[in-house]
Amino acid sequence: KSRLSATAAVTLVILLVRSVPVCGQAPLNTRIVGGQESSPGSWPWIVSIRPGERGKDHVCGGSLINEQWVLTAAHSVNLKTNLVYVYLGRHNYNDPNPNQVERKVITMKRHPQYDDVFNEYDMALLKLDSPVPFSQYIYPVCLASGGSSVHAGVSAWVAGWGYTQEGNFTFPNTLREVSIPIIGDNQCKCAIPFFLPPDTLCAGLQEGGKDTCQGDSGGPLVVKEGTRWVQVGVVSIGQGCGRAKSPGVYSEVSLYEEWVKNETTSGNTPGFVSVKNNCKK
């Protein structure tokens, strides 16, 4: 009798552990407000994607979603390129990066409905050649699950190695971060002078000055949900960088839960977390 009880208890513990997503924890992140150079480990899921031989320039960002898969933008993925490396745990644009782990990409999957003219379904997955070890500097982000909603005015964060201003074609020395508010759909449609894909959300300041830029594409837009960081968007398109009344456009992660789960069958299932009532305080 006692043996059966112990077995049942162990089974229950295992089920409870498995039900808690392994994602979204950033113990070295103490961010509250503002935008500036990040500190090492602040965004442990951030990935630098660099096509070609080792040592080539950064092209796009991405996010680690489990031990062997990276989420990025479809327009960041060139299916004709056979050699792509990703770097995790990286902080400096160039070496030294003592916490860095390098992996080769062995599979690239664009969303099957991706449209490179209108930038619809701008989402892609990269499979790494081997699992990465988790640490304070390398850890997967949680993903917004289907049905999630992020209200206008909520503060979101985005980080990357993209250009620091429009027309300045140089990369920063270190990973940069910025906090920007989510913008409502109607306001975004009025602000964007081109076709706005229906699977997107927008973020930015009315007065401009804080935004993503070239080189940030594919990177994660995250919000804090309780004690976890949850990715709600993937950097997609925009008009210029940091222009007034011209927010950045992000592919909405919650709409892709089924596709991501179906494609990432190797390794642990990425951690999906519901984002609800995330209203501006």
From TrEMBL:
Signal peptide limits: 1-24
GO molecular function, one term: serine-type endopeptidase activity
Keyword Hydrolase: yes
Keywords from the named record: Disulfide bond, Hydrolase, Protease, Serine protease, Signal
CDD domains found in the cross-reference section: Tryp_SPc
Example GO BP: proteolysis
SMART domains: Tryp_SPc
Domain Peptidase S1: from-to ranges: 32-265
Pfam families: Trypsin
Coiled coil: none
The protein, known as: Peptidase S1 domain-containing protein
Organism lineage string: Eukaryota, Metazoa, Chordata, Craniata, Vertebrata
